[in-house]
């Protein structure tokens, strides 16, 4: 008994906006535009939104600012910030509130103009008094330490890490929205500027602008929409904030949320047709595929190097190009949800998979600190 | 010590050149960072105890900022318990590896007092 309202809510609208560079737009405007596009996609008008979920990059009280901007007086405003996983947590909370009848239409939206506005990653991370004096480059340092330990314990190689980036680029080359395209070789990744060993610049996600939104309703109402994507399961956890407090550098909270979400959905990893996960760094993909149950612990490096996650592989991962090659506006989680929805709707263009029925969306926040997993089904499951 | 939170207490000890942590009276293990009570259980923590400063490198990453020397950022497992993020001193960054025995050195006069690590000497 997981308590999750399986298939009783659905995503009925999804959008992206301004991926890559979006000069002349504020983060708020990008967030609102993604919201309008998702509502248009759902065929639902703005005045019907009574649940507002957001985590803006530059406004601690962004939920209030967004309500004002959109002209809404929501029954629920959820400004929960668990980092890049925030929006998957929002979806879980939205499902509960919708199922309980507290709200009828949930809008989850996010946008950031970090690339054109600041030229760098806008990180919400703040170091503690214990970490600050050492001036570590974070968050990359946290992921690099986890990668170092994974390589030591399991024989994972820099080439394995690089193969994650190459698979992401191969998918991005099929996605006209992806910011980084073109050929990339193993040597391009390995010989790129070293940022924090063993991670080079090509092991790190992009710094882009971008916005995304989804609209959720209860299943009864969703049934009359164009292409409802039922939410079958969801789970979230937090295991630490700073990397020194991570219980085990090679096991993330996805080992908790993956099995929980799949149990709620009534599926196993074998049922999954694609995985959209938060690849802030190449090590993320390896860790999450292990922890979500797609390969044994320690085998993630060899799994990705087998070609399994690239176009034509047995388990398509990050079919939009991911944070590594599609877009990374700072908190990427919502983009995993939009890509899962597009694949399940059959709207993914050149990168469309053959009739996928189950998609996993997985978000990460902090330095492997927060993990959240969602399981989506196809319209037929609704 | 004056009556403060444990964070201020830890830093005050460091500024006096003492590396002190609280211990869990049940397991005997030291707790880092300092807490009001045992994380996870909420049970009382024991008195502050002086650490030996001996530890083992659990993970390492080398970072180099523009116009600066490469530095080894490390996670160190303390002999008495607790894992700290820190940096290595007195050794080339690329010579630091998982499993290395290290010894704490207190930097007491910094803006924020802190602990860095050096390779443990012979016989350490």
From TrEMBL, chain A:
GO terms for molecular function: acetyl-CoA C-acyltransferase activity. Coiled coil: none annotated. CDD domains: SCP-x_thiolase. Gene3D superfamilies: 3.40.47.10. Pfam families: Thiolase_C_1 (PF22691). InterPro entries: Thiolase (IPR002155), Thiolase-like (IPR016039), Thiolase_C_2 (IPR055140). Residues 235-377 form the Thiolase C-terminal domain. PANTHER family: ACETYL-COA C-ACETYLTRANSFERASE, NON-SPECIFIC LIPID-TRANSFER PROTEIN-LIKE 2. This is Thiolase.
From TrEMBL, chain B:
InterPro entries: ChsH2_C, NA-bd_OB-fold, Thioester_dehydratase-like. Pfam families: OB_ChsH2_C. PANTHER family: BLR3430 PROTEIN (PTHR34075:SF5). This is ChsH2 C-terminal OB-fold domain-containing protein. SUPFAM superfamilies: Nucleic acid-binding proteins. Residues 48-106 form the ChsH2 C-terminal OB-fold domain.
